[in-house]
Every structure is written in C-alpha cells, then in structure tokens.
C-alpha cells in the first residue's frame, strides 16, 4: 500500500515552532520560517540548500496570510512528490481555521458589549451615557429611537442544548435587523428593537416571531411599549416582563397594551379578586361571558356585537337586560360596564 510520510510544523510570526508532529522541535527557532515571513513567499528546502537554514528539514514552507498580513508559517517536511498535492490544502485549511477563530472572538467581544449595554438599560436607574456611547462606538453601532423591549420565554432545554442553542439560532435569524439580543436569564432572551419608524419595528417583531416559531412551539413573547428615549427602555422591559406574567394558555405573543387592563386586575390583592368572583358565581355562565366579550370588543355597540355573535339586535338587547338584572351592573353604562369587564378578565385568568 502506498503511504505518505511527512511532518507538519507551525511557526509563529517570529519564526519559532509552536506546533509540530515532532514534540522535540517545539520552541526551536526556524530560520527558513523567518525568511518566509520577511519575503511573504514560499520556500522549498532540499539537499542543495538545507545547510543554509538552521533548524530546518527538507520540505516546503508556506506563509499563513490573514487579512493581508503574514501571521505565521506552515512547514511540511518530507519528499516533495508527497508534499506537493497537500501543501496548498493544508495552508488554506489553516488560514480558514484562523479566520473562523478570529470571527468567533470578534462576535463574542461584540456580544459582551451588547450584554453590558442591555444590562445597563434595563437595570440601572441612572444611565452612564458617556460609557454607553463608547460601547456603541466600539462595536460600530448607532441606535436611534423609537425603541421597544421584547422578552422571549422559551423551553429550558433549548438554552443549554450543546448542538444548537436558542440564542445562536436567534442571533443568526435577526443578524441583519436593528435588534440587540442578550440571553440575560436561563430560558429567557431579551431583545431591544430600534429604528427610525414604528413600521420598521413592527416588521422586526414579525421577523423575530417567525424565527422563534420556526425553531420551537414552546415559547411566549412579551412586548413592552414603544418609547422614544433610552432612559425609558427599563420601563418598556418591565412591561414586557409583566406581559409574560399574565396568565394565558392560548396567546403566544402578548403586548403590554393588550393586557394592561387585565394585568392591573391580575395584580389586585387576592381577597379583592375572590370577592368579585364570588359575587358573580351565582349568575355567570358561558353565554353571559360570550355576550359581554362581543359587546366590549365592539365598544358597546349593540348592532355590531349582535352581528359579531350572529344574533338579532333585539336578542342582544334582551341579553344585556338580563345581565343587568342578574348582576346589578348595566353593561350599556360605562361606569358600570367596566366592573363587568373586570369580571370577564378575572374569569379568563381563573381558567388559565
């Protein structure tokens, strides 16, 4: 069987051997490598010139060039007919590995800055604007209003999946978007969207949802309010967190505006909530809840809510009158209707 016999050495930018198939050569100065670094070109060493290069063996030495700079040398010792077919492949593979390593380090360095920026924005009561500008300049980024915070809650196994983390998938999926991303807690990822128009923010949120949905069905997204100042980011973030606390089995994406009313009711003392539920227990049923939901969704418009339910207007009026009679609250009067809306929200929370 035909076998190849050659040894590969890697030399640093000063000409010293830093990796070798022959461990006894580690740390030795390689004169030929130093020459290759200066001349930026390949050097073949054979019996005719070996004595000229201290610490060298017959073979081929090739410069490792990264971004136009020679950062080291690959030395392949052995017979030329065996070395030549693999020499360029070894050189290209080495350069690619170095570039990938550099890229990863740059990405990690950038993410460290983003993590610090988001931590500062959502945790600090006083933002160090000078330090913030320096961090943004360091990563070559400028963020402009409006801003909007999003918190994604996802299944725990994804965050620590060694094959592919949720955070890595999200980073790739929104790489070209105006979004900062940080895995700030186990199974929770924080996003800060920014841009010149609310329409672009809405588009970013849609893109985020598509990426998340393509990766997992076990998630929830809380979205804070649209704000105009970096000093308000903390408030938007707290709203996004509050949206996730709202009990809901069906809704995957909840904006703070959607659940602001129900959330306020949800935060009431347990004793107060129990009192409202207990008072409605005697008369409450699915038909009453369905009627009130349609009535409130249509802004107390009888004709619209009747149409929504597929019933006659007179039937809708009769239902509202019955609700008034049973509950003591008139759904057609705003001051009394809001009490019934509270009960609708509490019933939903109770089921969830």
From TrEMBL:
<dbReference type="InterPro" id="IPR041522">
    <property type="entry name" value="CdaR_GGDEF"/>
</dbReference>
<dbReference type="InterPro" id="IPR008599">
    <property type="entry name" value="Diacid_rec"/>
</dbReference>
<dbReference type="InterPro" id="IPR025736">
    <property type="entry name" value="PucR_C-HTH_dom"/>
</dbReference>
<feature type="domain" description="PucR C-terminal helix-turn-helix">
    <location>
        <begin position="290"/>
        <end position="342"/>
    </location>
</feature>
<dbReference type="InterPro" id="IPR051448">
    <property type="entry name" value="CdaR-like_regulators"/>
</dbReference>
<feature type="domain" description="Putative sugar diacid recognition">
    <location>
        <begin position="4"/>
        <end position="119"/>
    </location>
</feature>
<feature type="domain" description="CdaR GGDEF-like">
    <location>
        <begin position="128"/>
        <end position="246"/>
    </location>
</feature>
<protein>
    <submittedName>
        <fullName>Transcriptional regulator</fullName>
    </submittedName>
</protein>
<dbReference type="Pfam" id="PF17853">
    <property type="entry name" value="GGDEF_2"/>
</dbReference>
<dbReference type="Pfam" id="PF13556">
    <property type="entry name" value="HTH_30"/>
</dbReference>
<dbReference type="Pfam" id="PF05651">
    <property type="entry name" value="Diacid_rec"/>
</dbReference>
<dbReference type="InterPro" id="IPR009057">
    <property type="entry name" value="Homeodomain-like_sf"/>
</dbReference>
<dbReference type="InterPro" id="IPR042070">
    <property type="entry name" value="PucR_C-HTH_sf"/>
</dbReference>
<comment type="similarity">
    <text>Belongs to the CdaR family.</text>
</comment>
